[in-house]
Amino acid sequence: QESCGCCLMERQMNRMEMYFNKSVYHMHELLMKSKTALMNMRSRVAFSVSLNSEENMRCMGPFRSNKTIDYKHAFLNLGGSYNTSTGIFTVPRSGVYVIALTVYSDAGSPGNTLAACAILHVNGKVVAGPSEKNKQDQEDSVTVVLALHLKAGDKVMVTLPIGCCICDSYHHYNTFSGFLLYPTE
């Protein structure tokens, strides 16, 4: 008998079970989407800094030994991994990063030696050393852009080598930038 109470209850239970299973499936899908969105937000890493933001031109160097450049003006520090006090970018997550460095200098007057140069380091090892040294220019700049595979905890920094000088103002001629292109772990 289809109309007996037990049969009706069994049909109702089957419908409720199907509804419950669909609900659990949709909740699981939403959970996975939420986890992915959260992971994407946590993986956002980008910084862009300049030497200073003062109105008057300020120069740094030349020094008798290499000196870490601590870029003081932060345009962006998404993830908070660049330290404006130390000048060091600490990699928060392993991945491929794009790192860009531009150095600018002013020799002061025509005929003086221009020495716009810097050294990019990862964990103390030299990665790049953009340099422009000559007596033909009073002002000049040099830029390097690299894609690097970096590991969580790596330290990326820029030093001013012996004999080099960089100058900056609110025009932001000297910049150091980086961002996570994609994570590898």
From TrEMBL:
Spell out the Gene3D superfamilies in the cross-references. 2.60.120.40
Gene Ontology process terms (BP): maintenance of synapse structure
Return the SUPFAM superfamilies for the record.
Answer: TNF-like (SSF49842)
* Keywords from the UniProt entry: Secreted, Signal
Keyword Glycosyltransferase included in the entry's annotation: no
- In what residue span(s) does the C1q domain sit? 40-185
The question of whether Secreted is a record keyword is answered with yes
One GO cellular-component annotation of the UniProt record comes to: synapse
Primary location group: secreted
Q: Where in the cell is it found?
A: Secreted
Can you name this protein?
A: Cerebellin 20
